[in-house]
Design brief:
There is one protein chain. This protein has 315 residues and is an alpha/beta fold. The protein has 3 domains: 63 residues, OB fold (Dihydrolipoamide Acetyltransferase, E2P); 163 residues, Rossmann fold, CATH 3.40.50.300; 57 residues, Orthogonal Bundle (Ribonucleotide Reductase Protein R1, domain 1). The chain contains 9 helices and 13 strands. The strands form 3 sheets. A 6-stranded mixed β-sheet has the order 10-9-8-11-13-12, with helices on both faces. The chain has a 5-stranded mixed β-barrel with strand order 1-2-3-5-4. Strand 8, helix 2 and strand 9 form a beta-alpha-beta unit.
């Protein structure tokens, strides 16, 4: 569950970060007041492994300056977060959002088609950082019979592993209602590649969310439907929803090779039967995971994702 902020005292107030533009942060206090806040440079030095020392969803403590702007004095400990490797040649990690109940991966059945490898990387990251995932397959109105058959197989695979799977379309109000029910009174985040319909889903949930997303996009002059900066948006039926920029790749960060199999639920039991404690589950004899793959207890697509993660983490 998201962190509960401590009480304010001695001129120090507590608020939640609802928007980050890179240099300024919008923070919202318990009373609903919103302040533009700056972050002292010392925090950037102590968080050198991160591209953003503060993430949307963080709780911070702050003081008010004479000019009514806010100065962040402390970043409170996170209960969880969604992260990825830094992009555009930068080193370290980028924290997309923190202190959340659900991370909702929005995939589309077409235009663009979903990739199970991307889904699996997302799920591993959620498992590693104690985030509860939801898989939402969008644009169901574009699906033909072959698409539906394939999606049924994919959905069953992930449901059998214990993951919550939803199907929907902005043209199917019942599916939007089901999504609303899942995120009511929670703090959630939409994640997914560009073009899967995240902004259209925001608009279907509540038109005001799309309007606020458009305000964020105005910073980049790239058009209404380009989300450049993450923002925590209040939901009209209770809770918050964060929209994030489109993600092309979901690189894992700070997860060692030997840990990856721990975040595949179907590998937890078979790996106990491995002959070697440092088994990579790729080439060793008497490997419980490889035996489970041979018996059909681990889906080929999932094992392929595992091997790809091992390979990419070693580069």
């Amino acid at each position: 569950m998201p962190l509960k902020p401590p009480a304010n005292h001695d001129g120090i107030h507590t608020a939640r970060v609802i928007q980050s533009t890179g240099s300024w942060y919008d923070i919202q206090g318990d009373d609903g007041s919103i302040h533009a806040a700056r972050l002292p440079g010392k925090f950037r030095q102590t968080h050198s492994g991160q591209t953003n020392p503060i993430a949307v969803g963080d709780y911070v403590q702050y003081t008010i300056n004479e000019d009514k702007s806010a100065q962040i004095t402390d970043i409170l400990e996170r209960t969880n977060y969604v992260t990825r490797k830094a992009t555009h040649g930068r080193r370290g990690q980028q924290i997309l959002v923190s202190n959340i109940d659900y991370a909702i991966l929005v995939s589309s059945i077409k235009q663009p088609s979903y990739r199970t490898g991307f889904i699996d990387r997302f799920l591993v990251s959620c498992e590693a950082y104690q985030v509860t995932p939801i898989l939402f397959f969008n644009k169901m109105d574009l699906a033909d019979d072959a698409d539906l058959n394939e999606l049924a197989h994919t959905s069953t695979l992930y449901e059998d592993l214990g993951y919550h799977v939803l199907h929907g379309s902005i043209l199917a109000p019942k599916s939007i209602d089901e999504l609303k029910k899942s995120i009511k009174d929670k703090t959630s985040v939409f994640i997914g590649p560009s073009g899967v319909g995240k902004t259209s889903l925001l608009n279907a949930i509540d038109v005001r969310l799309d309007e606020r997303t458009a305000e964020i996009s105005s910073y980049s002059n790239k058009g209404k439907h380009t989300t450049t900066f993450a923002k925590l948006l209040p939901l009209p039926f209770g809770g918050f929803l964060a929209d994030t920029p489109g993600i092309r790749e979901f690189g894992l960060y700070n997860i060692e090779d030997w840990e990856i199999s721990l975040y595949f639920p179907e590998m937890l039991l078979p790996r106990k039967s491995c002959k070697f404690n440092n088994c990579t589950h790729i080439h060793e004899p008497s490997c419980g995971v490889l035996e489970a793959v041979d018996r059909g207890q681990i889906a080929p697509s999932r094992y392929l994702s595992y091997m790809n993660m091992i390979e990419s983490s070693s580069i």
